[in-house]
Design brief:
Blueprint lengths: L5 H9 L28 E3 L4 E6 L8 E6 L14 E6 L3 E5 L5 E14 L5 E9 H8 L4 E2 L10 E6 L4 E16 L2 E9 L13 E4 L5 E8 L12 E3 L5 E2 L5 E5 L7 E2 L3 E2 L12
Length: 279
Amino acid sequence: MKKPLIGVLTALLLAGASALAGAAPAAATVTATPAVTVNFAGTVALSNCSGSLVRLPASAAGDPALILTNGHCLESGMPAAGQVVVNQTSSRTFTLLSASAARLGTLRAVKVVYSTMTDTDVTLYQLDSTYASITSRYGISPLTLSASHPVQGTSIKVVSGYWKKTYSCSVDGFVYRLKEGGWTWKDSLRYTSSCDTIGGTSGSPVIDTATGEVVAVNNTGNEDGASCTVDNPCEVDQNGVVTVRKGINYAEETYGIPACFAAGNRLDLTRAGCALPRP
């Protein structure tokens, strides 16, 4: 996993962690302009990870804003295999960045809307501010989560707010099951080798350079060539064949998230089409 503090992970393991043109009406939806150039606008830095200010395709300007990062970046500790956290109180803060990665200000959460490391590796925070208020104060619009499955060969950028660094590569392919320690993730996205992400890039948005939309969230990579251990995920195909790719990095797709939210950015895991794990 791409957290920067190896000691934190070691401590958790030793402690017995399971692993690792006109005014729009107030209710108008936020319009996302396709990106010509992907930059740091909309990204955030956490204390130990990266993240992004995101909207769903149907989010409105007056909705409470959301921050996307990894499940293993959760401040209360990495969720165990099978664990799902919903609506947990949080006051976590995030540093909002400009297009040039300058610090604009601090955003604050009121709760963890959803967090898990089962099937995927994602945390979504709800902020104490709306998209409209953030745009008005900082001139920053949220990134949009794509509702479509990413496509092999697509040009992407992984944008790390923690390191203020961007990685450019392509979608190399998809992994039936990605196993790391006690966790298993489904249909993970594999990068081509030029996205050589490091610790601290966890939670970075993976952005389609043609649309400017978020298609995945960066989460891990095989560091040492070991098989299926913490920091050394392995690929498992439909027949159970294990493949290890030393130095290759991965992300978890996010296209399934919008189906799990109702109007007002309200989480509803019972909605038709929602496949996120439930508590």
